[in-house]
Amino acid sequence: MIPVRLQLKNFMSYGEGVPPLDLIGVRLACLSGDNGNGKTALLDAITWSLFGETRAPAEEDVIRLGAPDAHVLLDFQIEGVKYRVHKARDRKKGSIWELQVWQEDGKLRPLSGTNARETKDKIQSLLRMDYRTFLATAYLAQGRADEFARASVSERKKVLADILDLSRYERLEALAKERMQESGDRLTDAERTINTLDAELANEDRYHMLLEAAQKRRAEIEEQAVAQQAAYEKLLAQIESLDAQEQRAVDYEGRTAEIEDEIARSLRSLADVERRLVEAQQVADRRDAIMTAYDRFAALTEQVKPLEERYDAVLALQREAQQLERVIREEFDRLDRERYKVECEVAELEGLAQEVGRYEEEARRLDVEIAGYGDPEARRQQADQNRQEAEARRRQEEEDLLALRTEHATHKAQADALQKRIDALSGSDAAVCEYCGQDLPPAKRKQALSEAQAGAAQVAQTMAEVAAQGRDAKKRADACGKEAEQFAREADRIGAELRQVQSLLARKAQVEQERLRIEERVKTLPDVRRRFQKFARALAEKAYAPAEQERLVAVSAQLEKSERVGEQLNHVRQELSRYRDAEKHLTQLQQADEVLASEPPKADELRALITKREGQIEKARIMIADIRARTAALPSLRRDLADRDARLRASQGDLQTADREIGRQTELLERCAQYKEERKKREEERLGAARDRDTFKELVGAFGKKGVQALIIENALPEIEDATNDLLGRMTDGAMQVRLVTQKERKSRGEGAIETLDIIISDDMGTRPYEMYSGGEAFRVNFALRVALSKMLARRAGAALQTLIIDEGFGTQDPRGREAIIDALNTIGDDFSLVLCITHIEELKEAFPTRIEVTKGPAGSTFSVA
User: Fold this and answer.
1) Is the pLDDT of residue 378 over 60?
2) Any idea what the Cα angle at residue 747 is, between residues 745 and 749, rounded to 5°?
3) φ and ψ at 837, to 5 degrees?
4) Which end of the chain has less neighbouring CB within 10 Å, N or C?
5) Which strands, in side-by-side order, build the sheet including 2-9?
6) Is the pLDDT of residue 723 over 80?
């Protein structure tokens, strides 16, 4: 990973308007500046954007004090591909983390995940390391230069595992464990199934014995059931024959009941026929009276129709007369309303004519009242001018009073100071001047006291004069204020008079307007009177609806001629109502003639049918008695049949039970045969699962930390040792050396060694613990280890680290050690695309080809590149 461009906003000590840090073409550079200027904050910005981690205890602490949010934009390059990461933090809205890649067309394509966690994982996947690995290899952070040396054994191994990309073996180990677990589960399942099958197969001989016993029992039950079936069928045939005869008797009884019902119906029909014959003869006896009444009914009916037609015409004339009268009345009412309306208008105009004089009198009265007020506008302006002049004099007096009060306060301060001096000079121990600190002889003190008292008297007199002038100014200001208030009240009073005059003028304009309107209306009075006379004459002479009045006279004449038609029609209708049943009686007579002609043969037929059916009933009763004598034994036979049926069913149930037992034992034996085949298959599965479990168990050990991973680390350690000692030898002239040990003897009794990763340091004085070396010596060891790890990581095919960052540490070196470190940095420069060193030591700054100077002002930190 090579940083290309860094841009900050409100990040830690950096505010807004910070220029971007362009690192294109920079290979070896130093970050310089005073402590606290923000050198390390630039590197915190890089780690925060890539890993979300900084020196700050909380993420919100990266936001500049007083700012709402912080932003970091970092462009970096990995294996020729350029990426951009943008991370921001808002105090209210939370965090933003975006990852993008630059395309060939110069546009950015997003690579961010669906959340911050996924975006962080994608960035670490690109870098092939996390924050801790970055600190332990590529970034010698301030105060953390000994990160790798002081790390625990497990943490050192983890750093090396990340650098050597041993995570793939961890994934293979996890996969082998998963497969081993699956194989073990399959083995356990197969063994459990085999045990279950063996338990079932142990019962096979017993199943054979039970099957033979069930088959023997079935043969015995079947023999009994055949004999019972034959006896049952014989008895059933006898009962079915008697049932058939019983059914014939039931059929005869049913037919007898039907014949009896038919005889009853025939008797009822014969009675109806005889009744109709009697009633028909009674009607026939009244034939002459019925025919006479019907003839009169027909004659009256012929008379009604012409009279009804004439009466309908009379009704139509009456309706027309009513309509004409309504039209004539409506026209009269309309003319009368118009007359009344015009009459009211005449009365109104005559009243208005009398109002004209009253309005003229009102206008003259208003003129007199308005003239009594004179010119109130001029008087009000004069009162306002007088008020303004009085207020101006009052303000001037108040200003003079304020000046006098200020002068009085000044004199008061002088008097207080003089009084303080008098008090000091009057004291018995006043041998030293309070103001100049010099000795003050009695004569000098007396003179000074006299001068102070004279000055105090002068100031008091001046204060009294100023106070008197102030009192006079206050009186004059109060008088001017009262005068201004008096003029203001006068202006308000005149304003009220002015408003009253304006109200009177408005009233006069209304009076004049109303008078002119009334005069215009009064001019129409002659025309309105003529209209009233016209309507009154038309009503008196009935000059309205002439056609309707003429038609009404003609219709009335016709109605007088036809007034007896209604009486004639009523007389005929009354007589006709007395013969209203004539038609019905004629119909009854015709029906009676038909009955007397058709019903006597029907009566004879019914009498013959009744006699025949009575003979049939007698024969059926004889046959029923004979059948009942033969079927008397049926109840006893049915009981015997039910008993035999119960015994037969019991035998059939026993037979079914035996069949089920035979089927069950047969099924169990067939299942045993299936179990034998299933056991054979499960045994093969068990052997295969055991082989797979053993194989994957070996793979778990091979891929584990004590297997391939330990071998890879052991093979990589010599490379790290050589690189570390090469750089450490150049910095110490070969005086110091580092050895990495992977095994050591156990402290307790026992055989073998334990796995470790210890750092053994030796110099001219021999081998000593890391903690026993001075700060400068420890830094050289840490620096050499860090650079060796970084060089190895840079050469790893799967890694993408090409940057080395060193934050402080040079202050612990003597001049010779600093020169050796600069030479070492120049030596490793070819192995890294970018080496950044942070220092505040002035003599080291000139040793770097590129210098990034960090400064801090009121607006925050900033930098310049030289």
Assistant:
1) yes
2) 95
3) -120, 135
4) C
5) 21-22, 2-9, 69-78, 81-90, 94-102, 108-110
6) yes
Quote the distance between the C-alpha of residue 375 and its chain's center: 75
Q: Give the count of alpha carbons within 13 A of 258, CB side only.
A: 7
User: In sequence order, what are the residues at sequence separation of 6 or more whose Cβ sits closer than 8 angstroms to the Cβ of residue 545?
Assistant: 327, 328, 331, 332
Supply 734's token pair. 């070969």
- Do the strands 834-839 and 28-32 form a parallel or antiparallel pair, or are they unpaired? parallel
C-alpha–C-alpha distance, residues 163 and 712, integer Å? 11
Provide the CB-side half-sphere exposure for 617 (13 A, CA).
14
Rounded distance between C-alpha atoms, residue 85 and residue 82, angstroms? 10
- When mean pLDDT is compared over 19-23, 337-341, 491-495, the highest value belongs to 19-23
| Closest to 95 in 3D by CA, of 72, 77, 78 | 72
* CB 547, CB 327: distance < 8 Å: no
Residue 208: both structure tokens together: 């054979």
Task: Give the integer Cα–Cα distance in Å for 72 and 52.
Answer: 11
Any idea what DSSP says for residue 799?
A: -
Q: What are phi and psi of 218, to 5 degrees?
A: -65, -40
Task: Summarize pLDDT for 56-97 with one digit per residue, the tens.
Answer: 888 889 999 889 999 999 999 988 899 999 999 999 888 999
Cα–Cα distance for residue pair 107/121, rounded to 1 Å: 23
Backbone angles phi, psi at 765, to 5 degrees: -90, 0
pLDDT band at residue 102, thresholds of 50, 70 and 90?
very high
One-letter identity of residue 684: E
Instruction: Dump pLDDT digits (tens) for 226-275.
Output: 887 888 888 788 888 878 887 887 887 788 888 888 888 888 888 888 88
Kind and range of the H or E run holding 862? strand 860-865
* Integer Cα distance of 115 and 104 in angstroms: 27
pTM of the model: 0.40
